[in-house]
Amino acid sequence: MARIGSGAASLPRSLVFLVFLKLLPLAIGKADFQVLGPQQPVLAVLGKDAELPCWLSPNISAHLMELRWFREQPSPAVHVHHAGQDKIGEQMPEYHNRTSFVDLDMAQGKAAVRIHRVTASDNGSYHCLFKEGRAQEAATLWLQVAGVGSKPRIQVIHTQDRGVWAECTSDGWYPQPEIKWKGQTLPNETKFSVSANTSLWAVVSRVALQDGAVDSFSCSISNTLLSEEKVANSHLPAPFSRGSQLRKQRLALAFSLLAMGLIMAGVIYLFGNCQRKAYRTQLTEETEGGRDEQSQQASMPRAMPLHGVLF
C-alpha cells in the first residue's frame, strides 16, 4: 500500500515537470518587442558601401541587447555587436574588415550594419536579430546589388562563310544587363556569361552588317536597376563606305541618265511636233495657192474660134 501511495504521489510531480519542459522553449523565445526592417530591397552599388538598418517596435533601448546580422545561419554571422563592442570572433571570413556597426539611435532601438566595398556575392537576403536575455526576435531584409560594367567595344569581323559582322563586348555588369543595337535591323546573336570568381556578367553580341545599308551604328548596354547605360558608336569600314558611295554614285548616274533621256525624248517630241506643224502649214499654203490659180484661170474670157473669112 505504501508503494502505491508513493507512486500516486509522484504522478502529479511528473506531469508538472513535463509541462514545464514543454513551456520552457516558449518562455525562452518570447519577447515583448518586434524587430523591423526595410520592406523594399536595399539597393547597393558595386564597390560602394551599403547599410542594412533594423529597429525595435516599440522604440525601446537596445544598449544592453545583442545585435546580430547573418545570412543563412546565426553563426558565423555577418556582424555581431553586444554591449557596445563588436564580436569579431563570430564573423564570417568573407566579411572580415568589411563591416562596421552604425548606431542610428540605440536609445530608440535603431541600428545598422555597414558593408564596405560591396561585391556581387553580397546580393541576397539577410536576417537581423535582437536578443535580450533569453528573448529574441528577428527580421528579414534584402540587399540588391547593381553594377555598371565597362564601356562597350565594337570590332568589325570578316568571315568567309558568314560575311561581315560587328561584335560588341563588355564585362563587369551586375545583374545581367540589357543590350540594344541601333542602325542595324538584322537579328543579332547575344551571349552572356558569369565570372566564377566575381559573379559579374560579361556580354558578347554580334550583328550582321548590310553593305551600304547604313553609314554608322551603335551598341548600348544598360543596367535597368540603376537606369544607366553605356554606348559605343562605330562607322562602317572603308571598303563598305566606298562601296556605299559608289552605289550612291551609280544611282545618281542612273537617275541623271534617265532624266537626260526624258529631256531628249521631250526635245525630240517637240521638234517632231514643230516639223509636223510646219509641214501642215506648207501643205495648206500650197493647196490654197493652187486654188487661187484655178480661180484666176476660170475668170479670164475665152478666145473665140476663128473660122474662115471670105473677102
TrEMBL record:
The keyword Protein biosynthesis does not apply. GO terms for biological process: regulation of cytokine production; T cell receptor signaling pathway. GO terms for molecular function: signaling receptor binding. The chain crosses the membrane at residues 251-272. The keyword Signal applies. Its main location: membrane. Residues 1-29 form the signal peptide. It is found in: Membrane. Residues 25-140 form the Ig-like domain. Keywords: Immunoglobulin domain, Membrane, Signal, Transmembrane, Transmembrane helix. GO terms for cellular component: external side of plasma membrane. It comes from the Eukaryota. This is Butyrophilin-like protein 10 isoform X3.
